[in-house]
Amino acid sequence: MISQKLNDQITRIGPATPAGEVMRRYWQPAALSDEVVGADPMVPVNLMGERLVLLRDPTGSFVLAERVATADEAPAFHPDRDAIRLVEGGAVYPVIEKKGVFFTYMGPGEAPEFPNFDCFRAPDSHVFAFKGLWECNWLQALEVGIDPAHASFLHRFLQDEDPADSYGKQFRDKAGHTDMPMTQVLREYPRPDIEVEETDFGLKITALRHMANDLTHVRVTNQIFPGAICIPMSREMTITQWHVPVDDQTCYWYTIFTSFAKPVDKELMRNQRLKEHRLPDYAPLKNRENNYHYNPEEQEKLTYTGMGLDINVHDQWAVEGLGPIQDRTREHLGRGDAAIVRYRLMLRKAIKAVETSREDGLLMRDKSAAAIIGPLSNDAITSTGNWLEASRQADMQRRAECPWDASV
């Protein structure tokens, strides 16, 4: 458990807050390219406690400019264009569009370079971007993503579907190059050993599920500082997901799906997700007000939560159930929370670096960030004694067969 003072320090993200000052020193997703319509668009954006609008400046470049918020504006409400008023002399932030997402830099000085992650290296044909709104603080949204053990419980499927129907769905593929469905691996081996390693971008998190016949399932995921993760979706795809504060009690997840093999079926993936979300605010149709469509018969026969097959709904229920801002003064972390502990230490170290004007200690803040590639993120079943090299080789093989340059 931690003190209330520390919990406030690592969760609050408004201007001049400790965590907010760290997050403003990195590029953050602000809007999807799909949200920008017309030759002269104005897209309201609420980001890190600030009311902004995405528009073109006199040079034709996109920027985020400060706007006046209407009195009845909800965190993700999109008012009519005519109701948008800019603040004279207000803040203006630079914007860059990458792979279906508009990113902005809201910090002081020069913006950092973008790392050369796979999601940014892949051609447009091999990526797809989407987002979703959660009614909770950004940190608890991130922390569920860096907990490798939660998938065996929260995403437990009691039946294993045909992998031929798994496209665009996480945990519905076969594990590694075996005939065992990933859902079966998670169900039968629910308590992995977890190894956490600091990297030049954040954390490499390895979950080891030791199986029969001296085999081990190796799942490598990553925390990308300050608020993103990169995880395997299937043998073909990875997910790079940012957890972006709207304000202290609301956040968006922005995801870029990246395919190493075939071009992404964008229409299919968009339609899959629009069945679960409404426009224009990308709020989930299953939510606290309708009890996430909980079905006790489904819970008995099909899923752990009884809330459908979309794992985003499972995660949403879990993180929103902790309250708008999780009370960490009452938590008791254990051995399985190793990545969460290491991340919080990393965040506190970054807060201290900003407060003491030692920003050279922050990850990915200099020109060398552009040289960071990858990261490795995959599932593999290997011999227990050779799991580390076998996992790396599985990733190398996927990259070697990739039609775009995914070499590392």
TrEMBL record:
Q: Which residues form the LigXa-like C-terminal domain?
A: 104-358
Superkingdom classification of source = Bacteria
Q: Do the record's keywords include Oxidoreductase?
A: yes
Q: Which SUPFAM superfamilies match?
A: Bet v1-like
Provide a Gene Ontology MF annotation, just one. dioxygenase activity
Q: Which InterPro entries match?
A: LigXa_C
Record's keyword terms, sorted: Dioxygenase, Oxidoreductase
Q: Which residues form the signal peptide?
A: none
A Pfam family of this chain: LigXa_C
UniProt name for this protein: Phenylpropionate dioxygenase-like ring-hydroxylating dioxygenase large terminal subunit
| Species | Neorhizobium alkalisoli
